[in-house]
Design goal:
Helix content is 36%, strand content 24%. The protein is of the alpha+beta class. It folds into 2 domains: 6-171 and 338-376, Aminopeptidase (3-Layer(aba) Sandwich), CATH 3.40.630.30; 173-337, 3-Layer(aba) Sandwich (Aminopeptidase).
């Protein structure tokens, strides 16, 4: 790091003015903006007591101006990360090592790819300085590792040049090929897949449900009340613990990214039935999670609310893509194809590092084979070559 650059660690994102943080984060990805991270932190969803102790990195130039930031946390476990290192932790413990605490550069509970090394100017020397600062802090504190998850491909390459190990994963994205309507999109699918999607949408339409899409200020506290109950019900039934508390959603709506919230809202006989939570950023709609009234699951409603309504929204607003996250090869049949994600991992212990490097090389080969199988099963009448590597996400809940 340059002698003119000074690194600091802050224990709260509110220490940094929103405008200053966002001047580094940019406006293309809502999850790394001050408002989203502050909502997670100030709701105590991510806090020391939940195993996410904020320790954000800031870099100042010789004039004391903040020129780079990175969202970072001291982790006492590996929950809520979605790039799983449980096996690494168990192996290190069996060898007598102490894996936790570790440093995590990430957006808590949010498996969405985007920038993690946030710089005011497009300057790779600042990104290198952030990577160096994180490893130095971990080394000085005797921590086992640093994990920069769901970063960009370019950031992973920068960190790899500093001795981080690169890891690949995948998520499922729908891409807008200048579709004018949903039917235009369906016309590109193979006949069997097209008929299946139509059948699913018709089955939901026959239920006489009211389905609307609420954006920003359209979303009121009562919507969040119901959504959070539905969300907790789904998470409790499938995974066991919800990461985000009710206060988070109020703080999110009041933040500068509140206008980027897109909520698909489903009612039956005038009563809330289900809802899907999305965020809008740049040219992308990010599907995050959904919830449904306990005991009221309707066939294909999940596909309609989470996948098809997202496509409708993207086409209507001329967005480039919908990112539906990992988990579920069923997404492929509905037009969501696997795309590569990236992370970078610095391991302090040479023995553990060597073992992890060997594991990642083997994992990469398996992922390539999985990608090829999913590509062959793609839904389009003319297969699209996708430069991606697919990986199963594992049994952990969204949010």
């Amino acid at each position: 790091m340059s002698d003119t650059m000074r690194a600091e660690i802050v224990g709260s994102i509110d220490t940094i003015p929103s405008a200053v943080w966002n001047s580094c984060a940019g406006d293309g990805n809502p999850f790394v903006r001050h408002g989203f991270l502050a909502a997670i932190e100030n709701s105590r969803s991510a806090a020391g007591e939940t195993g996410w102790l904020p320790r954000h990195v800031i870099l100042k130039d010789d004039g004391g101006e903040i020129v780079a930031v990175a969202p970072m946390y001291v982790k006492s476990h590996s929950y809520g990360e979605y790039v799983f290192d449980w096996g690494w932790a168990e192996a290190y413990a069996r060898a007598g090592g102490r894996y936790y605490p570790k440093l995590q550069c990430a957006v808590p509970f949010t498996p969405v790819a985007g920038p993690r090394l946030l710089v005011r100017h497009d300057d790779d020397s600042l990104r290198l300085a952030l990577g160096e600062t994180m490893t130095r802090l971990a080394d000085q504190a005797g921590m086992s590792s640093v994990h920069v998850t769901f970063c960009s491909d370019a950031e992973a390459s920068i960190l790899e040049s500093q001795g981080y190990l690169r890891r690949l994963g995948s998520q499922y994205h729908w891409e807008n090929r200048a579709y004018g309507t949903f039917e235009h999109f369906l016309d590109q699918l193979a006949s069997r897949k097209r008929k299946q999607v139509r059948k699913e949408r018709q089955a939901v339409a026959a239920q006489n449900l009211s389905i609307t899409t609420l954006v920003g200020a359209d979303i009121k506290a009562r919507h969040w009340d119901y959504f959070h109950r539905f969300y907790e019900s789904v998470v409790d039934r499938k995974w066991g613990s919800a990461y985000l508390n009710r206060e988070f959603f109020d703080l999110l709506s009041m933040s500068e990214v509140g206008d980027d919230v897109v909520l698909v809202w489903v009612e039956q006989d005038g009563q809330p039935l289900a809802s899907a939570f999305n965020m809008l950023g740049g040219d992308t709609l990010y599907g995050r999670t959904w919830g449904v009234r306990p005991g009221a699951e309707t066939p294909f409603l999940h596909f309609e609310a989470c996948y098809y309504r997202a496509i409708d929204f993207a086409i209507a607003h001329d967005l480039a893509r919908v990112e539906a996250g990992a988990q579920g090869e069923h997404k492929v049949a509905r037009g969501y194809l696997p795309r590569a994600t990236h992370s970078a991992h610095w391991i302090r212990d040479p023995g553990l590092r060597q073992a992890v490097a060997k594991f990642l090389a083997h994992e990469r080969q398996l992922l390539a084979e999985d990608m090829a199988e999913q590509e062959a099963a793609g839904p389009f009448s003319q297969k699209v070559c996708t430069p991606c590597i697919a990986t199963p996400e594992g049994p952990e809940s969204p949010y």
